[in-house]
Amino acid sequence: MASLNVVELLKIADSLKHLKRTGWVKCEVPEPETVAGHMYRMAIFSWSLKGELEGIDIDRCLKMSLVHDIGEAIVGDITPHCGVSDADKHSKEKMAVDAIASMAPNGAGIEWAQLWAEYEAHETPEAKVVKQLDKFDMVAQAFDYELKYGIDLQQFFDSTTKCFHSEPFVSWDRDLRKRRQEALDKK
Predict the structure, then answer these.
(1) pTM (2 d.p.)
(2) Helix (H) or strand (E) holding 26
(3) Quick one: which of 25, 47, 94, 185 is 20 to 30 A from 64 by CA?
(4) pLDDT per residue over 87-125, tens digit each?
(5) What backbone phi and psi angles, to 5 degrees, belong to 83?
(6) CB 40 within 8 A of CB 48
(7) What are the distances in angstroms from CA 153 to CA 19, 20, 37, 127?
(8) Where are the alpha helices (DSSP H) in 49-124?
(9) Which residues in the chain show pLDDT less than 50?
């Protein structure tokens, strides 16, 4: 790998370490998580499922978790509230992922781009697992912020009511919402 690509790839990783997630910024969360923090937590979630989901390649899920938002290093964290169409968002992110993938050595970038495309299509069992992990991580983070900062992030719970369709995500979501309701009842 050329040293220029190493430097550029490090810049990409660095930008993800500092890029705050847009949804939390828009909701004025005092210390919002970064995109890299989100991807790391998803990778940990993925890894924790090793041996738990029959027929699912958890190593693939782990890798997919680590690259599913990598294009945001170039285009930023585009949410449904940013006024960008889904098609335009996908196009921008694909170009960004392709550019980032071209910097990676030994075919790793090809795998990153393939995993990103697989996630975006959410047709494979692994992509469906990672999509549910993504949504669960978001509501779990929302609940953490509600407890920590005393803010109402109901919109994140509303947006995920139909996102969980398999175990353990259905049970995790049910448990999280129960805990949230109990916390709200105590106020």
Answers:
(1) 0.93
(2) helix 22-26
(3) 25
(4) 999 999 999 999 999 998 878 999 999 999 999 999 999
(5) 75, 20
(6) no
(7) 20, 17, 19, 26
(8) 58-67, 72-75, 86-101, 108-121
(9) 1-2
